């Protein structure tokens, strides 16, 4: 009887301690893990968000880059972190593509990561080295068919892999050489140097080389032309079935208290609605996009299914 009472009292004490911890959240610095290198779109979004959250929540919000494994290393670090709201993931569309790209992930994408809020949707553009005699997407297809195996394409994240795989699959009869990179910046450098000839990338990584004439932009992955690049056609103008979307969101490990998830979601929404945040996003050509945890959860599941289907149909096999 005494042991039973002791267990009950101990359990109540743990619940009280947990409730106090949630009520005092955050009581120490928060870390946002970015599973890509610095200067990538994900990294820039995380740093803008971290600055705003630090001011609003009264604790430092630190960005930590953990690239590698097509973003699996960073995601695994968050999935295995204590579920207390102090270790978060800057997730991307690449997070949902991983089950179709990696055979043995050290975590379950749908079970071990908890959606908090979407953050942004942004455009990928298909860039080519400017030395190529190509100015349109149909010209790229014709050139690739006439020169099988002579064009190298770079990828710097799982979204780039998925977008490339779907595009080349839908175009048909293209023999291209895949050159993977740990992040967009390194791939874009080689694109500008003509060591690779084409790549899906974000404007934040590639626009400098467009301005210097080293690379040329052919199309965007958006369903329609981007408002900030109205002269660049959408891939859908040539291939209507193309369906890749790039996005970023904030996630935490399984077991994170709902009160903490809700608090973070509210703070993210407030942060992205501030004029200074909108201005920073506009400068980088990011489109702010927040959601409730429930909305993000439904979207996340849809994206897992979409990327798995698209990569399977494109013939991509997990490695």
Topology:
Blueprint: H1 2-23, E1 30-34, H2 41-57, E2 61-65, H3 72-79, E3 87-92, H4 93-101, E4 113-122, E5 125-129, H5 137-146, E6 152-155, H6 158-171, E7 177-180, H7 184-192, E8 198-201, H8 203-211, E9 215-220, E10 246-253, H9 258-272, H10 275-283, E11 286-288, H11 293-313
Parallel strand pairs: 1-2, 1-3, 6-7, 6-8
Antiparallel strand pairs: 3-10, 4-10, 4-11, 5-8, 5-9
Helix pairs in contact: 2-9, 4-6, 4-11, 6-11
Main sheet? 6 strands, mixed
Shape from CA axes?
globular
Number of E-state strands: 11
Low-confidence stretches: 9-21
Task: Characterise the protein shown here.
The protein is α/β, with parallel strands linked by helices. It is 45% helix and 19% strand. The chain folds into two domains: 182 residues, Bordetella uptake gene, domain 1 (D-Maltodextrin-Binding Protein, domain 2), CATH 3.40.190; 113 residues, Periplasmic binding protein-like II (D-Maltodextrin-Binding Protein, domain 2, 3-Layer(aba) Sandwich), CATH 3.40.190.10. Strands 2-1-3-10-4-11 form a six-stranded mixed β-sheet, with helices on both faces. Helix 2 crosses helix 9, helix 4 crosses helix 6 and helix 6 packs across helix 11. The longest helix has 22 residues. The termini are far apart.
Task: Please sum up the structure shown.
It contains 11 helices and 11 strands. It is α/β, with parallel strands linked by helices and 319 residues long. Helix 4 (93-101) crosses helix 11 and helix 6 packs across helix 11.
